[in-house]
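JOB MANIFEST
job_type = single_chain_structure
chain_count = 1
residues = 492
[input]
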Amino acid sequence: MKIDVTRKVPEHPETLILVLDEVSKVNEIEILDDELLDTIEHFVKAESFLFDFANIRSFTRMAGKKPQNIILAGAGDRDKLDSQRLRKVLAGCLREAIRMKALQVYLNIGFETAIPEAELGHTVAEATLLTSYKFNRYQSQSNGHELESLHLIYNTKTNRHLNRGILEGRIYAEATNLARDLVNEPPNVINPETLADHAKKTALQYGFSIDIFSMDKIKRLKMEAFLSVGKGSKTEPRLILMRYNGNPDKKHQLCALVGKGLTFDSGGYSLKPAAGMVNMKTDMGGAAAVIGAMAAIATLKLKVNVLGVIAAAENMIGSNAYRPGDIITTMAGKTIEVVNTDAEGRLTLIDAIHYALEKEKADRVLDIATLTGAAVAALGKDFSAVLGNNDAWMEQLQIAADACGERIWKMPLHEDYKELIKSEVADLKNSGGPLAGCITAALFIGEFVQDKPWIHIDIAGSSSKDKPSGTDNFGATGVGVRLLTNLIRNME
């Protein structure tokens, strides 16, 4: 889709989005012709329309011999309008434009905002491409309508800052949509082997290096916890290692991003109920976020060194599957009593984290995973739970989240709850029971981070949506891509 900036508006733009704050007057907008302004003002008065925040109405009129779509949107209090609130307004407008089967959309924000031009361009491009996303490749007759272009009407001496923002917003959105595609693919298409293939194609397209380890190499690394999870599947696990070296002068400063890559999770012998198993193709949302973030980081050419790690597996039932009661030895040498085969993601993550720290010498690590139902119960679908051992880095994560509009909530890494993951027969057990599940899962992973700066992000709730909301549509949200990209960007 084309997204650009224009100072000139056609005499009768096919679709016009007009965003006003609660005190602006329609007849004060100089860039639109008087006839159109009179029509809009008449509609506003007749319908008693108020430009309250996220209030949206539309109508169609005849302009000459052609219909013209007008979409009115309220920004509310202009002093409160930031990128996050604008993103929500634009998402509603774009959904309405798609409903009206618009092709050429002209966007006019009819008042001066405090949002810097580069940030404004970024927000417009990102909101447009994220809201317009659809996953319909398996529908023989898709009813989805696609916009052709969006033109931001903006009167400025130079478009340089706006264009830079639009370019970067496109990078962020396209990387997010890449992750969405991976998560939305059905589990008969995405398995550990094909996920590795997609990661390889992404590496070639976006310019970072990749290594893929098969079963034999993983066995030699003694990653028994990771391998145990995948033993019940006919598709062998894959360890995916993606490297971006944007600052070779500081090659010893390496940040590891570790994504949970369960391409399907049946729960193993601790079998999930049927309703809970339907969407378990999304259990590789963390892996998709890391792949998308690596694509964005490489495209932006950030001056950082990043390692992406995915321990990809399927948690299935079979004669070789691991069982409740098994005791397994991790790559780090600690032993784990398996009390629940559905607490499998943390077993893959701990071996992946240990590999990143021990073999690649990463000096900090972040893991992102669709890990616990407890995170969903606590925070719902709009927030990702975050826990970590480094306050300064957690503050940087919050700044990154505020900038991209992804909501996070810090949970307490309560040391006393370590008692819940102690085992009578091994060093640890892989589940702390029904209480504080999000926290005990993080504490379990924290036992393997070697006191390095570490952040854990639980996206079990935020990784997918049951219905459109904001810039998200039904299905995968691609959560984490923009958050991780911003975090890494702030580390330049």
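[summary]
The first strand starts at residue 2 and ends at 6.
The mean pLDDT is 96.
exit_status = 0
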